[in-house]
Design brief:
Elements (H helix, E strand, L loop, with lengths): L2 E9 L2 E7 L5 E5 L6 H11 L32 E7 L3 H5 L5 E7 L5 E5 L2 E3 L1 H10 L10 E2 L3 H6 L3 H12 L5 H163 L1 H33 L8 H17 L1 H104 L4 H16 L3 E4 H4 E3 L5 H8 L6 E3 L2 H14 L6 E3 L8 H11 L5 E3 L4 E3 L4 H8 L3 E3 L2 H9 L16 E3 L4 E2 L5 E2 L4 H7 L5 H24 L12 H87 L4 H38 L4 H103 L9 H7 L11 H23 L20 H11 L16 H23 L7 H14 L1 H48 L9 E6 L10 E6 L13 H18 L4 E5 L7 H15 L4 E5 L3 H6 L2 E8 L4 E8 L1 H10 L22 E3 L2
Parallel strand pairs: 3-22, 3-23, 8-21, 11-12, 15-16, 21-22
Antiparallel strand pairs: 1-2, 1-4, 4-5, 5-6, 6-7, 9-11, 10-14, 13-15, 16-17, 17-18, 19-20, 23-24, 24-25
Helix pairs in contact: 5-27, 6-21, 6-23, 6-25, 6-26, 6-27, 7-20, 8-19, 9-18, 9-19, 12-17, 21-24, 27-28
């Protein structure tokens, strides 16, 4: 049912009622820019249900025609409407079809309605009736606006999926799908809740049972601990009593020995004191002698420098006297030679005068030789000639001055004339340049004015779009924040899920090792399995098998990092691992991968393993190394077909012989041709690492949210213009507005500048026009001045010559010289040479005479007198210095003799002092030995008594700790205790003698302490508090002894009473401590519940009541899952039905559109889905390969190739739900002539069979192949659009009748439909 007519009334630029048509199967709408072609497209869109906001307007009123002169804000009284008529074709007539007229009207108030055959209907009915004839308003399968083709080529995978959902009508099931999914998730959550509740009760029952058993064990451990503590404290107290008795005996022996040592020490002290007194006196004598020696040595040191100084002065005077005598002799010899030098100077002067006379003679000879035919002037005549010449020069000064003045004026006049001529040429050239600049500036002013008007209009429109986009961006930003918060929650849950995942012991060790490696080496990235994942779950097993053991390898940045990691693992002994260094991995070449990808791309059963793995670009090399060029196929049969060919045989030597294939089920066909099937448990477990259902559900939800967020970002970014990178739409609009503002400002400033330049150029032109006549007059005056000055110059030259002849004439007559100038030229060189040499000789004579005068006036006796006087002074000083030398020498000898005697006295005193010091040192050595022995014994006594006191303190501490820990120690009755104690509290088994001995030791210790305090030289003494260590009257000690005496040690084991060394004691103590620690550890780890038995019975009863609820929840979950699978299946079915149809149609259409004589097979284009199970949740890729070109992404194709591919996709989409017509607005903008011809041919072929095509275009190739033309022009009078319809089929009929080519004009030529003056046309009103 094709479109026949389009009726418009006051719609946009179409004023009044206009009927456009009839439209043929292939109609082209043509017209200049701004005539209203796009408004015709908007009218078709409007009548077919497209909203006004998509038609370059903000409200319905904007679509009403505005007559000329009416303001935008004025209220319009016109109504607008657009109607389209569908008439049945031949097939529809056979089926009883009828004409249908769809119409939309707009009231002056902006309210619109929908009409079918003149009857007002609702929008739903209007839309359904359009859908009956194949027009889907939401999918817009009948319209292609300007830019839709480029936008389609730039669509993202998610946008392609949204478009296909609209076309396949699977979007209608989106809401039921989400509702069913929500119900399924709620039912599963309820089932999980009941299961967890039942599981919790079972765990609680099991826990209560363990608590019951723990309480019984707790009582048993308490009893064991009490028994162990009793044995331990009895063992400690028993051995403490034994140690105390032994140490008290040792203290008594040491005190007796100490008393003896102290007596000997006192005797040696007195002897040492006497020896020290004698040594002190000897030291004083030695010191006095040494002081005297030092005093004498000082006197000697004082005399020696003076003596040395006098000796140096004598040497100096002697040296000076010798020098003075030598100088006197030289001066006298010089005075004797003075007369001889004067005579030599006289001889030189006479010789120089002789040379001067010879020079005069040579000059006379040269004059005669130079001018043999003329008179030779004598010396007197030459002097006369010089005087005459000077007089002639003086007489010609005034005429020469006038001549110089005239010549200077002449040069100035010529320079001025040349300057004026140059300036005139420059001014004329400047006038031509100014005229050209005026023309250029005028043209520039016109262009800038037009650009400024256009920029202001664009800026207003950009400001409106920016305001609207800003509002939309604010809404998007709020939604984006909500999505970010929800995504962050899901990410946190996923992290927890990964942390809670149970790993094997080896895997846990490996993960720990990887964490250690990351902390030590920044270049460690992690395991490959953790850095990548398959794009879909169905590829898990295939990717695991393809990568093999490399999937568990660790990815590092460089080879050196891998070596360091291996060294670290070896040193730490944490196991082995494989490392993949990114800088040295060998991966398949890009050419081989692209060649294999292009080969398997048309067949949807194959994918490259690297293409189904999602990973970061930085580790892509590691993924390519692991899987190589392995191909993932759907099943084993497809893999066989790929590797062995259709005939089942593996072709040798070809590309197929090197393909490795892996099926989704895990089967492998290697490059060598071997096949391996089946899956091991290890492979299943490794593949299951990516298939945790709960985590996957969260990831799916996160992906949905991320898709929505990406949609927001994409919508904000400008509706699919991904080439803008990170720029958003609002930034683009703001940049566009700012750019337009800047452009407007620049244009205004440019306009101002241009106007100023115009004004300046016009002023400059007037000035130049005035300068040219002035310069021409100046040039004429300068030429006249030059002529006058030439004449004056000639007169001045004659005057100069006359003045010179007045003086030189008589001299010529007197000497007989006819030509003075010739004579002057002949002898000039000889005269110059003579004058030069004469000047040199005269200078030499003058120099000699001056030297003689100087030598005659010199006085040579005065220096001799001065030197003899200085010689006498030096001789007198020498005598005085020798006299002082003798006196100092005598005093120095006496001082040295006294010093020697003092040295001998000091040596004698030092020897006596040494003997006494040796005797004192020997006595000190003996005293220190006795003192050391006494100190060692005192120290031993103090140590033993301190140990005894520590033992008593330890006893007190042990008893106190036993009381604190509530240890029950066995006691004997009171009568037995009295029998076991003596009067001093001694334990049974200890004698009276030991007690008496202890008292004696105490008395000795006290006496020794007093004596030590009285001795000042003693280095060590017992502390005062030691006196109480042996005091049994201390209340604490007595109380501890009494308490220890009551203990009953008879219950101790015999092995515990044996005396033990330190090692055995530590062993026994450790055994007690280990046993006690073990029991206490068990007790501390217990939290006994005394009511566990009662609670255990209650929980057992509740567990029986949860079974029914769990069964009901499982039944509801099964029903919800079945309903969800039903909706999911139907939605996928619709989507895949449309996808398969469009994919097949796309391949056929693109091949037909790109087919040519050079490329008979055409190109290849296809669609591919990221997720074939639920395709609407993933993305869809659109790829095209033009003829003889390799596989590349759409972004890498040229503009024309993208347009052809996008048109093929549009035609394929149209073929799924074909509308009765197809309207395209300037889709050929990016096409060259070759591609344009292919598109035109295809549309022409399809329009004859499948659909009606209406094309808005400016290309003549569309005109040539159309069956009718609709011309649109602008009516200047009414400022509205008018149309002309031309039926071109009549010309085809005429040509068929005539049997010749169609002509355009009377002159003939090829078929061109641009101009047909005699063509029948229909003019719209």
């Amino acid at each position: 049912m094709p479109v026949t007519y389009l009726e418009l009334e006051n719609f946009k630029s179409y004023g009044g009622v206009q009927r456009i048509g009839p439209f043929k199967s292939f109609t082209s709408i043509i017209g200049p820019n701004g005539s209203g072609k796009s408004n015709c497209m908007d009218a078709l869109s409007f009548v077919l249900g497209v909203q006004s906001r998509d038609l370059r307007s903000h409200q319905m009123k904007d679509l009403i025609f505005r007559p000329p002169g009416q303001k935008r804000t004025a209220k319009s009284r016109l109504r607008a409407s657009a109607a389209i008529t569908f008439e049945p074709d031949d097939a529809d007539n056979d089926e009883g079809g009828e004409t249908i007229k769809f119409q939309r009207t707009i009231a002056p108030s902006g309210v619109g309605d929908y009409r079918i055959n003149g009857t007002v209907v609702q929008y739903k009915e209007y839309e359904d009736r359009l859908a009956e004839i194949g027009v889907l308003v939401k999918a817009r399968n009948f319209l292609v606006f300007q830019g839709d083709v480029e936008s389609l080529a730039r669509k993202s995978p998610s946008e392609f999926v949204e478009l296909l959902e609209q076309i396949s009508l699977s979007v209608e099931l989106k809401e039921p799908y989400e509702q069913a999914l929500k119900a399924k998730e709620e039912a599963e959550a309820a089932t999980l809740f009941c299961y967890n509740k039942q599981k919790g009760m079972k765990g609680e029952r099991r826990q209560l049972k363990e608590q019951k058993e723990e309480a019984e064990r707790f009582h048993e451990l308490l009893q064991q601990k009490a028994t162990l503590q009793t044995d331990y404290y009895l063992w400690l107290l028993y051995h403490m009593e034994v140690d105390r008795r032994e140490r008290e005996s040792q203290v008594a022996d040491l005190k007796e020995e100490l008393h003896e040592k102290e007596g000997l020490e006192q005797k040696h002290t007195a002897t040492l004191k006497e020896s020290k007194k004698k040594a002190s006196a000897a030291r004083r004598q030695t010191q006095a002698a040494d002081n005297q020696r030092i005093k004498l040595a000082g006197e000697v040191d004082k005399l020696e420098p003076s003596f040395i100084q006098v000796e140096e002065e004598i040497k100096t005077f002697e040296h000076k006297i010798v020098q003075d005598r030598e100088q006197v002799a030289k001066k006298k010899e010089r005075a004797e030679q003075h007369d001889t030098e004067l005579q030599a100077l006289d001889d030189k002067i006479a010789l120089a005068r002789k040379d001067l006379q010879e020079l005069h003679d040579d000059y006379e000879t040269a004059k005669r030789d130079a001018a043999p035919d003329q008179v030779t002037l004598t010396q007197e005549q030459e002097e006369e000639y010089e005087r005459v010449r000077e007089a002639a020069a003086a007489a010609s000064v005034q005429p020469r001055r006038e001549l110089a003045t005239i010549n200077k004026k002449l040069e100035t006049a010529r320079a001025k004339a040349s300057s004026v001529q140059t300036e005139l040429e420059a001014v004329q050239k400047r006038r031509a340049e100014v005229n050209r600049d005026l023309k250029d500036l005028t043209d520039r002013s016109n262009r800038v004015s037009q650009s400024l008007e256009k920029t202001d209009a664009d800026r207003k429109l950009a400001e409106q779009e920016l305001r609207k986009a800003t509002q939309e961006a604010e809404l998007s930003e709020r939604r984006r924040e909500e999505l970010d918060m929800e995504i962050e929650k899901i990410d946190a849950t996923l992290r927890e899920a990964r942390d809670d995942h149970k790993k094997s012991r080896d895997e846990e060790r490996l993960m720990q090792a990887i964490r250690s490696l990351k902390s030590h080496f920044p270049g460690v990235l992690g395991r490959l399995v953790d850095l990548c994942r398959p794009a879909q779950r169905r590829y898990n097993l295939a990717v695991t098998v393809a990568a093999g053991k490399d999937m568990d390898a660790i990815v590092v940045d460089t080879r050196n990092t891998g070596i360091e990691c291996i060294r670290y693992l070896r040193e730490q002994r944490v196991g082995t691992a494989t490392f993949l260094p990114l800088d040295s991995l060998q991966v398949p070449s890009q050419e081989s991968s692209e060649r294999l990808r292009a080969r398997i791309a048309p067949d949807g059963r194959f994918r490259l393993a690297a293409d189904v793995i999602t990973c970061d670009e930085s580790i892509k090399k590691a993924v390519l190394y692991a899987v190589g060029n392995t191909v993932v196929s759907d099943d084993l049969n497809a893999a066989r077909e790929l590797c062995f060919g259709a005939g089942g045989r593996r072709r040798e030597g070809g590309e197929e012989s090197s393909i490795k294939a892996v099926t989704l089920g895990g089967a492998v066909i290697s490059k060598a041709g071997t096949m391996t099937g089946g899956v091991t448990n290890e492979d299943s477990n490794r593949a299951g690492r990516w298939d945790n259902k709960a985590v996957q559900d969260l990831r799916d939800k996160r992906e949905t949210l991320m898709t929505e967020r990406a949609g927001l970002d994409q919508r904000d970014g400008g509706g699919g213009r991904q080439s803008l990178g990170r720029s958003t739409r609002i930034e683009e609009l703001r940049n566009n507005f700012n750019s337009l503002t800047n452009r407007a400002d620049y244009s205004k400033s440019d306009m101002d500048f241009t106007k100023r330049q115009l004004h300046e150029k016009k002023t400059l032109l007037k000035s130049v026009e005035l300068q040219i006549p002035q310069l021409q007059d100046s040039l004429a005056r300068a030429e006249r001045d030059i002529q006058k000055l030439d004449a004056a110059s000639k007169k001045a030259i004659a005057a100069v010559k006359a003045a010179e002849d007045e003086h030189l004439g008589p001299f010529r007559d007197a000497t007989g010289l006819k030509d003075l100038q010739a004579y002057e030229q002949a002898i000039r060189d000889s005269r110059d040479e003579f004058n030069r040499k004469k000047r040199t000789v005269m200078e030499h004579i003058t120099h000699l005479e001056q030297q003689k005068e100087y030598e005659s006036n010199r006085d040579l006796q005065e220096p001799i007198v001065k030197l003899e006087k200085r010689l006498k002074g030096h001789t007198a000083k020498l005598k005085e210095a020798k006299k002082l030398q003798k006196e100092l020498q005598r005093n120095l000898k006496a001082a040295k003799k006294a010093l020697k005697e003092a040295d001998d006295a000091v040596a004698e005193a030092a020897e006596k002092e040494k003997e006494l010091e040796d005797e004192t040192k020997a006595l000190q050595k003996d005293f220190r030995e006795f003192q050391s022995e006494r100190a060692a014994i005192s120290k031993a006594v103090a140590a033993e008594e301190a140990a005894l006191e520590r033992l008593r303190g330890k006893l007190h501490e042990t008893l106190q700790r036993a009381r604190v820990e509530e240890v029950e120690l066995p006691l004997i009755d009171s009568e037995a205790a009295r029998q076991r104690k003596t009067r001093s509290g001694q334990r049974i088994g200890e004698s009276e003698e030991s007690d008496d001995m202890e008292e004696d030791d105490e008395e000795d210790g006290t006496t020794s302490e007093v004596q030590d305090s009285q001795e000042r030289t003693q280095t060590s003494a017992l502390p005062t508090q030691m006196s109480q260590y042996s005091n049994d009257n201390n209340p604490k000690i007595v109380a501890d002894k009494n308490e220890a005496a009551k203990l009953d040690f008879s219950q101790m084991r015999a092995d515990l009473k044996q005396p033990l060394g330190d090692r055995e004691e530590r062993r026994v103590r450790k055994e007690f401590e280990d046993a006690r620690t073990k029991i206490e550890g068990e007790i501390e780890g217990m939290v006994p519940n005394m009511k566990a038995s009662e609670a255990f019975s209650n929980v057992t009863q509740k567990l029986k009541d949860t079974g029914a609820d769990f069964d009901k929840a499982k039944d509801d979950s099964r029903k919800a899952s079945a309903e969800f699978q039903k909706v999911k299946k139907e939605r996928s079915k619709r989507f895949m039905r449309a996808f398969n149809h469009i994919d097949e149609s796309l391949k056929t259409i693109y091949r037909d559109m790109t087919k040519s004589s050079k490329h008979p097979l055409g190109g290849n284009a296809y669609l591919s889905l990221d997720d074939t199970e639920e395709p609407y949740k993933g993305g869809m890729k659109f790829n095209a390969m033009p003829p003889m070109k390799r596989f590349r992404d759409m972004e890498q194709l040229s503009g024309g190739e993208k347009t052809v591919a996008a048109l093929a996709l549009l035609f394929a989409i149209h073929s799924y739900h074909p509308a009765p017509f197809f309207v395209m607005d300037e889709v050929d903008a990016a096409l060259d002539n070759i591609n344009l011809r292919k598109v035109c041919n295809y549309i022409q072929q399809r329009s004859q069979t499948d659909f009606q095509c209406i094309v808005i275009s400016l290309k003549d190739m569309f005109y040539e192949r159309s069956e009718s033309l609709v011309g649109i022009c602008k009516d200047v009078g009414t400022n509205s659009s008018r149309t002309l319809t031309l039926d071109l089929t009549t010309y085809d009929k005429k040509e068929k009748k005539k049997g010749k080519k169609r002509t355009v004009s009377e002159g003939g030529g090829p078929r061109k439909r641009q101009a047909l003056p005699s063509s029948p046309a229909t003019v719209a009103n």
